[in-house]
Amino acid sequence: QVPLVESGGGLMQAGGSLRLSCAASGSTASSDAMGWFRQAPGKEREFVAVISWTGRITYYSNSVQGRFTISREYAMNTVGLQMNTLKPEDTAVYYCAASPRSLYMGSNYADPDWYDYWGQGTQVTVAS
After folding, report:
1. Which candidate, 48, 45, 31, places its Cα nearest to that of 99?
2. For residues 51 and 34, is the Cβ–Cβ distance under 8 A?
3. Is residue 17 a contact partner of residue 86, using CB atoms and an 8 Å limit?
4. For the segment 3-27, what is each residue's pLDDT rounded down to a tens digit?
């Protein structure tokens, strides 16, 4: 059973908005910290945002700060990523990830190895 499933990707014009969703199930507990990463062709996987299991702590990469918002819906066990003011450089495959570790300022949350579970990814393409 795949524990994380992303949805909501697609093609959007620059300046537009998209909302990604990640549904967690199986081994992925509701107490996990949840994060979003992205990977563009020929580049390494890049941290985008992370949210604690309480939803009270969030961190963003500098490149998306102020444009993207991460949130979680406990009833549905999902994590969302609202992406506004999209830019062509946001084009990538976006991955959802879960970590059972505590999220705080000193956490290594930007490192993919901090996460135990990954989704299959969803493509986001932003046209200029």
Report:
1. 31
2. yes
3. yes
4. 899 999 999 999 999 999 999 887 6
* Cβ proximity of 123 and 8 under 8 Å: no
Amino acid sitting at position 61: S
Distance CA 111, CA 113 (A): 5
Sign, CA torsion 47/124/62/96: negative
Give bridge partners of residue 79 from the DSSP assignment: 22, 72
Q: Are 126 and 56 in contact (CB under 8 A)?
A: no
**Residue 110 C-alpha from the chain's centroid:** 11
The tens digit of pLDDT for each residue in 49-87 reads 999 988 999 999 999 999 999 999 887 789 999 999 999
